[in-house]
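During the reporting period the student researcher (J.K.) took over the structure-prediction task from the postdoctoral fellow and processed the backlog of single-chain submissions. One of the processed entries is reproduced below for the supervisory committee.
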Amino acid sequence: MVFAGYHNLPDAAAAAFTPDRYFLTGDLSRLDDDGFLLITRRLKDLIIVSGEKAHPREIEEVLARHPAIAEVAVIGRRDDSRGEVPVALVVLQRASSPSTPTPSAPIAATKTSSLENTPARSCC
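J.K. obtained the following structure tokens:
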């Protein structure tokens, strides 16, 4: 079991699971010729930040350009004041040498069209 449901959100919990309790991730996928499962896109591919549409793919493409990032996925997190905020889940490259750059501060210098005025914050 992934999780039992959304706390105090019974309608959201009901919509997130099939009748036999499989969790609906919202990811669309296919099997390649070698039998590997490839995630190709998302059903809900927008994050609404203070009424503005933010496209996770645009943010992922910007972050993926950083040499220290191996993989990135952007998801929406509920926010009381802005509705949702984008959160980047990042896998760093393994350092191949002492000179391989690693991010020590938020990577937010590049703006995307959908998030031009959204401040970046780092965590963890």
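The committee noted the following: The longest strand covers residues 69-79.
J.K. will present the remaining backlog at the next meeting.
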